[in-house]
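Morning F.,

Quick status update on the modeling queue. The single chain you submitted on Monday has been processed. Sequence for confirmation:
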Amino acid sequence: MTESENLNSYLKNLSQEFDNIISKKNFEYYNFSRTFEDKPDYIESPEDVNTLNYQKSLKIEEIFYHKNQRLLLLGEPGAGKTILLLSFLKKIATKLKNEGSKSLLPLFAPIRRWDRKEDIICWLINQAKVIDSGIDESLLKQKIRNREVLFLLDGLDELPAKDCSIKDPNAKQRDYRLEFMQKFADFESKYGQNPTIITCRNRDYQNIINKNGSQKLNLNGAVILKQLNYKEIKNYLEYSFAADSQFFRDIWTTLIQNSVLRTMVRTPY
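Structure tokens below.
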């Protein structure tokens, strides 16, 4: 199999993986523009953040490229971090099909799959094999060394904050979230820094960096994905239902009148 055929097979399987995940979540995918809050103090080496208007709705790719393609994406549970990551994956995969080797090769990997012992390079290759068992390992390694892979690493918070098998209350606990961060830093010192997005729940990441002092991810920027505002909610409803329909008017009136329901739908997933 040629390099082109190998990559095309991988991309076909990657696209199918996206469709499977969306199908399991039982909703029609909708590409929200969202608002973000900048958190430059959450990372080791923040880039200049003064040129982007965080008060208006933005797409994740705008944030990503503004941060020189290395981003920490934070948010509350259900805010939509994974969905944004998958939407970006879909766009990059489509771009690669159209442009060939000129585009980044996306690799989506839920961090919960890390077995807490694997070297990151082995883990990444194994995650690519989950998508396509026939992916050429040497080709993937070469692309990683050439910084031609886009790592979409989802859910740092899904690793345990402690080892529940340790019963001694005085024993030093292992925070597997922190261990992943350290191993990822070691991996990058050896293989170089590829374009990367890592997601984590905001409170979990605050807990990690507060508990461990100066240990932060070495990325170019960090943002919090904010709750949906009312304009974004209305745009979604108008996308899903005819704006002049009675159903749309009824549901929008209900949302305006019911503060509990408004609070729920601001965190959509």
